[in-house]
Amino acid sequence: MPRDASTDKPLVELVNVTKIYPPDVVAVEDVSLRIYKGEILFLTGMSGAGKTTLIKLICCLETPTRGLIEVAGRDLSRISSAGIQRMRQKIGVAYQDFRLLDKQTVLQNIAMAMEVTYTSTKVIRARVDELLALLNLSDKRDKLAGELSRGEQQRVALARAAANGPSLLLADEPTGNLDPTATELVINLFRHLNEKNGSTIVVATHDPSIYADTEHRVMALNKGQLSAHPNRSPRQIELFEA
Amino acid sequence: MQFLAYILRQTGKNLRQTWGTQVMTLLTVTLSVLLFAFFFLIYTNMLRASARLGDDVRLIVYLDQEVAEQMRPGLEKKIRDFGPVEKIVFVSRTEAFARLSAQLGKEKDVLNDLGPDFLPPSIEVYPLKTLNDLTKISQFSDFLLTLPHAAKVQSGSDWLRRFGYFTNLLRAVVLLSGGLLIISMTFIVSYTLRLTVLSRQGELEILRLLGATSAYIRLPLLLEGMLQGFLGSSLGLAALYFLYQYIASRFSGPGFLKLFDFAFFPPELTASILLAGIVLCTVGSLFSIRRFIRI
User: Fold this and answer.
1) Which of A52, A185, B85, B279 is packed most tightly, with the most Cβ within 10 A?
2) A225 in helix, strand or coil?
């Protein structure tokens, strides 16, 4: 369910954020955005619009050229490297290029996310099985990641991002390689995380099918600039203006 | 507990992934420790032998004529005035002949045609054990040569000096092999760890993205170095012990080993070498971790 933006504190706040890659490629320009706890936000836009950069900025993989980014009330530019690592344990990120280890099994790839938090093997096994069942990948558990199809790898990357029940999940083009059935499974996973764990979910996508009927906020990025999506519903307009 | 289990599991995984290099490293560490410990063992035994030989110093003043009985107290006083002496024994030609005859045992017949005159009378001076410095022995020897009718002084200082030179040479070899040990252990372990890091580059990158802490990534690598040090040093010392046992059993007659009362390292020294091996290998792994892992 969408949260009431007027009463909640933002989990993520970007204030006049600009990212320029050398020599002078402007990826994100003067973006201000608040993402609230428990919210599902869709970031749309063409390829090269700046969606991936925005995701990377939020999870500290990039630093802004200008502007301020706060996650859970903490200014990212002032967090130590150890602090960033601790923060990353609470943020699940599904990368566009998956970043899986091809020579490790699906189980090992997903387990990595939980091992860094020293979760017990028993809990890891149970959680991996649960996630694989949700994404219809149970029979792939012991397969090497490199032997899977692109669509399956994408779902494994999502399962890894969701493994720790993160307070913030960032998904970059999570349905880029999926058929409608698999897309539905992914949307269900997001819903499950959002409703059961209260996870905040940010989905960067250019696939309209996953946000077409949503009542959640949809924002559009165009050449690095953020605006409300042009085909928004009255509820979305209300949320955007809030 | 979970943390420890992870660290051990990850260390095992690292060792399996680069087992060929690990075995080579282990052999290098083992050989370095064996080489160093071998020379060190000889050196420590030589030092002990040297100390014992110093304790047994005896200066013999050969005279060109017998010392009359009434002259003896005067000579004895003169010697005692020069330096600390435990005892002084005057040996006449007849006593010297009797001694030689006793030493020859069944072969004493060879002396049948010889009288005691061919042996010189002598004074045997036994300095106190505190006189173990070669320079002092030499000075004492020079003084004894100034005694009336003294023809020659045999102090064994030449032999002791040569023994001292050999011990010094051995010390240099020990230092050299020690230096070699430090270089080989730190560099080889550092190099092996570098290979481990390179072979896990992709995994380490993903671990960083997933929020792995510095301890999570670095400790297994550090433990890997410590393990190399422990196993390599243990194997090197064990090999030396078996070598020592072999030599001791083969040469356990009246010979070199008996003469020097050859002994293995005491437990404290063995533990110290083991610890030094672990520390050196850990330092080697720290080099690589600091250089190749950025978190």
Assistant:
1) A52
2) strand
Q: What is the rounded distance in angstroms from the CA atom of residue B127 to the CA atom of residue B156?
A: 13
- Tell me which of B155, B173, B205 is where a domain ends: B155
Phi, psi of B268 (to 5 degrees): -65, -40
Separation of alpha carbons A133 and A128, rounded Å: 8
A80 shares contact with chain B (CB less than 8 Å): no
B253-275 as b/e: b if 16+ CB within 10 A: eeeebeebebebbeeeebeebbe
Residue-wise pLDDT for A82-131, tens only, equals 999 999 999 999 999 999 999 999 999 999 999 999 898 899 999 999 99
Is residue B295 included in any domain, yes or no? no
**pLDDT tens sequence across B64-96:** 888 888 888 888 898 888 888 888 999 988 888
Based on the fold, state whether residues B73 and B123 are members of the same structural domain: yes
Segments in chain B forming alpha helices (H): 2-17, 19-55, 72-82, 93-104, 134-144, 157-199, 201-209, 214-250, 256-260, 267-292
Question: Domains (ranges, CATH) in chain A?
Answer: 10-241 (3.40.50.300)
Residue B209 sits at the chain A interface (C-beta within 8 Å): yes
For strand A10-21 and strand A25-36, is the pairing parallel, antiparallel, or unpaired?
Answer: antiparallel
Give yes or no: residues B181 and B146 share one domain.
no
Do the interacting molecules here have an ipTM over 0.90? no
Chain A neighbors of B206, CB-CB under 8 A: 99-101, 112
Q: Could you give the angle at the alpha carbon of A207 between the alpha carbons of A236 and A64, nearest 5°? A: 75
Answer for the pair A48, A96: CB distance below 8 angstroms, yes or no. Answer: no
CATH number at residue B100: 3.30.70.3040
Partner residue opposite B211 with nearest CB, options A88, A101, A121: A88
In a shared domain, residues B45 and B73: no
Provide the 10 A C-beta neighbour count for residue A128: 24
Whether the CB of B213 is below 8 Å from some CB of chain A: the reply is: yes
Same domain? For B70 and B150 the reply is yes
* One domain, residues B271 and B145: no
User: Is B76 in the same domain as B99?
Assistant: yes
The length of chain A is 242
* pLDDT tens-digit readout, B250-262: 766 555 555 567 8
Q: How many residues does chain B have?
A: 295
Cβ–Cβ < 8 Å for A48, A221: no
